[in-house]
Amino acid sequence: MPLSELAQVLLHDEGTLTPGERELIATYISSQNDCFYCQTAHGAIAAHHLGGDEAIVQEVKRDFEHAAISPKLKALLAIAGKVQRSGKDVQAEDIERARREGATDQEIHDTVLIAAAFCMYNRYVDGLATWSPADMSGFRERAAGVAQDGYLGVLGYIEAARAQGSD
């Protein structure tokens, strides 16, 4: 539950970055870490927040600097990508670029925290050899629930389903 609570705060609760932007950061980091489950699950949630635009999610994963996203988000993704490799790779000019593009210190902080957390999440998920469906429909269905009810709301659905299965 604590990891779900962290995901709730980082990706769903109110913030200056939209949930779609935060999910794109999580998706990008997960793709850089080659975590199929996380990049697919969070990519579906990002797409849901972005009006179902799965193409933009693929663009961000492939080459965010040329994707149809804001210059601010590009600058934040550049920081996130450096955090994914090593936090020490982030340079003053990366922070200045983000600020020039309109990012607040809070948005920069949140980006670094999302990137660092998703390095941990990806290793956790892959380290447990988590099973992942190949069919996108399940990811899309779950994405709608997470987008609406958050990460803690989805846990309620899972617990209810488990309880029904044990009856």
Summarize the structure in words:
It contains 8 helices and no strands. The model has no long low-confidence stretch (mean pLDDT 92). The protein is mostly helical. Helix 1 (2-12) packs antiparallel against helix 8 (136-165), helix 3 (36-49) crosses helix 4 and helix 5 crosses helix 7. Helix content is 75%, strand content 0%.
Query: Largest sheet, if any?
Result: none
**Spatial extent as radius of gyration:** 16 Å
Can you give the mean pLDDT?
A: 92
Total strand segments: 0
The SS-based structural class is mainly alpha
Q: Indicate the percent of residues in helices.
A: over 70%
> Which regions contain 5 or more consecutive residues with pLDDT less than 50?
none
Q: Spell out the helices and strands N to C.
A: HHHHHHHH
Which percent range describes the beta-strand content? under 5%
The shape, in one word, is: globular
| N-to-C span | 23 Å
Number of helical stretches of at least 4 residues:
8
Question: Short description, anyone?
Answer:
The protein has about 170 residues and is mainly α. It has 8 helices and no strands. Helix 3 (about 35-50) crosses helix 4 (about 55-65).
Draw up the topology in text:
Layout: H1 2-12, H2 19-32, H3 36-49, H4 54-63, H5 71-85, H6 92-100, H7 105-127, H8 136-165
Helix pairs in contact: 1-8, 2-3, 2-5, 2-7, 3-4, 3-8, 5-6, 5-7
Keyphrases for this structure?
single chain; 167 residues; mainly alpha; 8 helices
